[in-house]
Fold each of these.
Amino acid sequence: MMDMILQTTNLCKSFKGQLAVNNVSLHIRRNAVYGLLGPNGAGKSTILKIIAGMIQPTSGSIEFNGHTWKRSDLADIGALIERPPLYDHLTAYENLKVRTLALGLPKQRIQEVLDIVQLKNTGKKRAGHFSLGMKQRLGIALALLSQPKLLILDEPTNGLDPIGIQDLRKLIKSFPERGITVILSSHILSEVEQIADHIGIIASGYLGYENEIQPGTDLESTFMEVVGTYREVN
């Protein structure tokens, strides 16, 4: 039996009576990369925000690290959802220092995470002058400060150039070796295929497919079949 760090059971979320997430049951294996695939508006970000404690589910349950999810578990969950929460007038080091002071974390973590995301040589350059790829990596550094067991990344390669995507892909693939499980969302099939060990495909709020990525899997056909099926449901 696989060692699961997180499972959701019949997770639902509605907004003004409209179901955005419909009975979703995810199975996230420990020390792996899980790709949550789906078209824009499928419900991916809503699911990630629920797991990250940003919004509450309408119904359903979450099990984290062998017990029912509770607010204190957020100490073990890092997240980068939407734009990185950066102070543009501060350096990378200063941005991280603000977070360590707020969370009461040891100062030594700043250099450790700067090294992990390869931003230790940015010196006095302010975050507002960083490239988009650098900003994404600094956002990930902020999420890593508390040494999380689970890292949530929502569309992390959006807007990046090919070099930025390659750098971020390499970084994400290194996390399981550090004891960090990753859930990332994307609508780019080829990108997830190169990073993830397992995938779930969300369409119209439903989880239509979940499995390990096998060599030779025709992910595009599977994706289109799931999206087409659940588009007809609605």
Amino acid sequence: MLDSHALLTQAERQCHKHGARFTPIRRRVLEMIATSPGGLKAYDLLDRLATEHASARPPTVYRALEFLIEQGLVHRIESLNAYVACPCPEHAHGFQLLICRSCGRVEELHLDDVNEQLTQVARQQGYRIERQTIELLGLCASCTEQASA
């Protein structure tokens, strides 16, 4: 699991550097995501946030998530419609996600040459890539070991 304190400190620095406001709600949403062992869905975040902030509504969570994604602090797991904290938001290139279908653990990879190859092939086909999502679903080492025991 991520070191949530280090991640929040890094997020504060990054937002300050880009002149973006890292509000208490945005911070708390990031903290909730960072301390979750797998991805969190928006309504799970809303349920948790509502216990602390009675005024929390879906737009509150979705605006916070949008901000965190724009800042590179959170990734959306498309196949699960969930969100996971980015362990290295300073990495400006593409990423790939390994998702365990058993325990929900998510690992982030940075195979830049894979993303570049896909972008080049798309260009050759006349496409302009706007967003690239690569998710690999399977079993993590721990779950694989448990399954074989």
Amino acid sequence: MSKSEHTLFEQSLKSNDTEERIDIWFYRPIGYRIAKFCARVGVTPNAVTITSIFFGVGAGILFYYGDLWINIIGMLLLVFANSLDSADGQLARMTDNKSRFGRILDGFAGDFWFAAIHIALCLRCMNEGWSAWIWVPGVLAGVSHVFQSAMADYYRNVHLYFIKGKAGSELDNSKELQAELDKMSWKKDFFQKFVLNGYKNYTTMQENFSPKLQQLLQMVKRKYADQMPASFVNAFRIRNRPLMKYTNIVQFNTRVLFLFLWIFIDQVWLYFFFDMFILNPILIYMCKRQEQVSAHFIDQLATNQYDEKHI
């Protein structure tokens, strides 16, 4: 990759702070090439996202079968789906073709993949002699995945907001979303309002899990109106960046590596318990640590630590 090409590649990323190593080394380079091709032929980011849903759901269906070679094809499809999921965001940044609907669609794409995977694994377990009770851990693990993915994505966007500002993140809040909803009509804007209402509820859930963080965000907006002093930005980045590794752990790569392991040893039921009893404690720790970071900066801002006269 030439120097200019490498620069373009870097610009297609969100931030090195929030990118996982395996993404930087593997998924992002593949996504960048897919995005370049799509930009050349006029394919939109939303079309790429929708295509990823078909590949991800197809992968989940193939995990239903007990034949390892069929499962390996499913693994390859899931890897390709995630490459497309990487490409849609890179394409949106490369072509400046960003939209809230695109962000919502991209956010829920993975939920479609893993819903298919959980259903397929439950049915597979029943074929192998498990009772219908396997649906209990299957559903609980699925719910756990939704919360893990939602909070990891939220904390990443919060980090991007603090280090890049409002324009460099995809951070929304439920009050502003509700204000937009109030301007819409169910009769005239049914589909848009239905999607935005679901997204507002999703955002409300994220906010309810992070009360101290909400207090910090409100304080920052009151004091700085999204124009944060460099000293504050640097301090937040240093203290908050270590938490990004936890957002990566509960996201795609870690869970899929272990999913593939459980499939290879033909013990797919372990995936549900890994989700609940390994990833959920990490989620709880991640939320707790983020709240501690937020409390620290609330105290700092209350004493005007980062006002210009202190810089």
